[in-house]
Automatic annotation (TrEMBL):
This is isoamylase. Residues 235-670 form the Glycosyl hydrolase family 13 catalytic domain. The keyword Plastid applies. SMART domains: Aamy.
Length: 795
């Protein structure tokens, strides 16, 4: 039966509740037949039908009359109306009386909004499908619809039709249900590491439909807004932080359990945590049995984003409860409680690629929605791979860069995070696919086109972020390189506000501390905040994020234990991971070594940590290094959900009077010294270099000794020296009339005399043992050791 054009209200009724639908002119056949009853039409939908057919024709384009409302009955669902909706904002937005849905897709010729109950999502069937009319539900390239009514406990996705032509960059497939890039929570599997129905690693995903009355009690939380020069950053993995049994927390490996251990970070002197990826990712991405370790291989680190707005659901103790709202609130609680303890929260974000990989990867979201917009493509549709992970996010495309800015603003305004570290950030400086100056800048520039992926000056995305009134006030840290060979440490476009992970600091310090010739001068630059990299560009010492170790690479303990990597447990025949680690095992390979070697290793760990704390710039510590965590020489533990990546709270307790004590006291010393977190690069007015003799530094190729004095408004003056030679040396200290030098730190000494804090038993006696040297303005240094002396008035 064909339905005639009319302006009447149509009721499509069956044996269940009402489903009102606002639409334009109607010309469709009822699946189960239908009857005209007065001013309504009753359609009897078949019980097996799960699809709401398009109730809108193109009659309006021919001047036909408009149908006001169509009422559909569906079992077990509250009634709602379907209205035209608004193209902004993108995503699902709760409004008075309903939810607006809007999504960008430039190449789609047809679209549908798919609704699921949680039960239907698990069963991989659509509860309702609302087909969108391009004449009513599309504005420009944005598809939109407003659902008026109750949508509690439902989730959503989209279907798009269009050209399926990979060689032209198009992957439209109407059989695929896709995740909204703007979804605020991803609903799929609720428990970490557990397969979906039927053993599926990639079960259907859907987005949370927001509820207007959902509020979180921030308890007056406000941004801490620490000056960046005052930060001590701690790179932390949420699951790994408390998953080990020794954490003795409820719901280990979750946001909530991490809160229970924040006091440890406070005690250590940390005032900023940098969370490894907490955006939704699929830990089962690499799922396969690893016979070497006898367990399944997982994506533990999380550098493979599925959705950028959603927190990782399976890091929450709530899982899928309340359609993801409880997981969002758990993350917010972590941020709120960190702020209460004076700890800022930064997110490690991965805008360089997504989990969809290359043409052989899964179609989850971006690829099926608008592949040629979201990914950097070659002329024949191939995926550029500057990330080393199969695809490259098309960051400088106008739509994509707005998406990224919207995402970052959401995490700042809604989730209260304090900043971001951008993984492989150099990709964000590369030109996008189909680079067109008119689209990017609004007018032509000299030269018509720029080759896709070419680094550009003043990249639009970086400028958008830098000039955004919200984002320019938070911490912005770039990992200033990518897998395509672009290396921008010291030259990343910064607008005066971007900092960088200083990879050069890591490499130079590792080589100097282990006694490699030719690095004395470069090491001195590192101690000063790397002015050779940042000063000419108008930046400050705090634009350098200094680190010795991070998640990828050796831990601090392994750095002094292994000359070679041992990655066989990754299942890749030891081919993965960095081969050039600039490490030194101190004479014997592996953990089982002589007492002499083990003592030297602890000394070297103290040397590294002391260097980190006395350097200008922002120090960053990797989780577990404060107690000497080992990964057994594995420098690429991305796939291990086990003890290799778990913080060992039992080992931390064992180390509480040893290396952990040293780290805690060194961070405290840094805070106490006004001169160790300068806003400007140090000059000769307060900094003086020394060698074995005062004021005679040795910058020769064979020098393995660097020393300096620094005037300090709190401590008066400090003397710091590094002897990385295999030979001991007696240094002559600079004379200060009316004052004498007093030892505070000597990494060659056993605990607790490595750091002479006020609570050390017989501290005065320990200092007096050196009086015959100090009275002569001398101090003996063992090989591979470092010292800190404090200037004190003569008694």
């Amino acid at each position: 039966m064909e339905l005639a054009r009319t302006t009447s209200r149509f009721s499509f009724a069956s044996n269940c509740g009402l489903f009102p639908v606002k639409c334009g002119n109607l010309r469709r056949y009822a699946r189960g037949g239908g009857d005209l009853v007065g001013n309504s039409v009753t359609l009897r939908a078949s019980g097996s039908s799960r699809r709401l057919e398009s109730l809108v024709s193109n009659a309006s384009a021919r001047g036909g009359d408009e149908v006001e409302t169509v009422v559909i009955e569906r079992p077990g669902l509250a009634p709602f109306q379907v209205l035209a909706g608004s193209p902004a904002p993108l995503g699902a937005t709760a409004c008075d009386g309903g939810v607006n849905f809007a999504i960008y897709s430039s190449g789609a010729t047809a679209a549908a909004l798919c609704l699921f109950t949680l039960a239907d999502l698990t069963a991989n069937r659509v509860t309702e499908e609302v087909v969108l009319d391009p004449l009513i539900n599309r504005t420009g390239n944005v598809w939109h619809v407003f659902l008026q009514g109750e949508l509690d406990d439902m989730v959503y996705g989209y279907k798009f039709d269009g050209k399926l032509s990979p060689q032209e960059g198009h992957y439209f497939d109407y059989s695929r249900i896709l995740l909204d890039p703007y979804a605020k929570a991803v609903i799929s599997r609720g428990e970490y590491g557990v397969l979906g129905p039927g053993g599926d690693c990639w079960p259907q995903m859907a987005g949370m439909i927001p509820v207007s009355n959902e509020e979180f009690d921030w308890e007056g939380d406000l941004p801490l807004q620490y000056p960046q020069k005052d930060l001590i950053v701690y790179e932390m993995h949420v699951r790994g932080f408390t998953k080990h049994d020794s954490s003795e927390t409820n719901s280990p490996g979750t946001y909530i359990s991490a809160i229970k251990k924040l006091d440890h970070l406070k005690e250590l002197g940390i005032n900023c945590i940098e969370l490894m990826p907490c955006h939704e990712f699929n830990e089962l991405e690499y799922f396969s049995y690893n016979s070497i370790v006898g367990e399944n291989k997982l994506n533990f680190w999380g550098y493979s984003t599925v959705n950028y707005f959603s927190p990782m659901i399976r890091y929450s103790s709530a899982g899928l409860a309340n359609c993801g709202c409880d997981a969002i609130n758990e993350f917010k609680t972590l941020v709120r409680e960190a702020h209460k303890r004076g700890i800022e929260v930064l997110l490690d974000v991965v805008f360089n690629h997504t989990a969809e990989g290359n043409e052989n990867g899964p179609m989850i979201s971006f690829r099926g929605i608008d592949n040629s917009t979201y990914y950097m493509l070659a002329p024949k549709g191939e995926f550029y791979n500057y990330s080393g992970c199969g695809n490259t996010f098309n960051c400088n495309h106008p739509v994509v860069r707005q998406f990224i800015v919207d995402c970052l603003r959401y995490w700042v305004t809604e989730m209260h995070v304090d900043g971001f570290r951008f993984d492989l950030a150099s990709i964000m400086t590369r030109s996008c696919s189909l680079w067109d100056p008119v689209n990017v800048y609004g007018n032509p520039i000299e030269g018509d086109m720029v080759t896709t992926g070419t680094p550009v000056g003043g990249p639009p995305l970086i400028e958008m972020i830098s000039n955004d009134p919200i984002l320019c006030k938070v911490k912005l840290i770039a990992e200033a390189w990518d897998a395509g060979g672009l290396y921008q440490v010291g030259s990343f476009p910064h607008s005066g506000i971007w900092s960088e992970w200083n990879g050069q600091y890591r490499d130079i310090v590792r080589q100097f501390i282990k006694g490699t010739d030719g690095f004395a001068g470069a090491f001195a630059q590192c101690l000063c905040g790397s002015p050779n990299l940042y000063q000419d560009g108008g930046r400050k010492p705090w634009h350098s994020i200094n680190f010795i170790c991070a998640h990828d690479g050796f831990t601090l303990a392994d750095l002094v234990t292994y000359n070679n990597k041992y990655n066989l447990s990754n299942g890749e025949d030891n081919r993965d991971g960095e081969n050039h680690n600039l490490s030194w095992n101190c004479g014997e390979e592996g953990e089982f070594a002589s007492i002499t070697v083990r003592r030297l290793r602890k000394r070297q760990m103290r040397n590294f940590f002391l260097c980190l704390m006395v350097s200008q710039g922002v120090p960053m510590i990797y989780m577990g290094d404060e107690y000497g965590h080992t990964k057994g020489g594995n420098n690429n533990t991305y796939c291990h959900d086990n003890y290799l990546n778990y913080f060992r709270w039992d080992r931390k307790e064992e180390s509480s009077s040893d290396f952990y004590r040293f780290c805690r006291l060194m961070t405290k010393f840094r805070y106490e010294c006004e001169s160790l977190g300068l806003d400007e690069f140090p000059t000769s007015e307060r900094l003086q270099w020394h060698g074995h003799q005062p004021k005679i530094p040795d910058w020769s190729e064979t020098s393995r000794f660097v020393a300096f004095t620094m005037s300090d408004s709190v401590k008066g003056e400090i003397y710091v020296a590094f002897n990385t030679s295999h030979l001991p040396v007696t240094v002559t200290l600079p004379e200060r009339s009316g004052y004498r030098w007093e030892p505070l730190v000597d990494t060659s000494k056993p605990v607790p005399y490595d750091f002479l804090s006020d609570d050390v038993p017989d501290r005065a006696t320990a200092i007096k043992l050196y009086s015959h040297f100090l009275d002569s303005n001398l101090y003996p240094m063992l090989s591979y050791s470092s010292i800190i002396l404090i200037l004190q008035p003569d008694a």
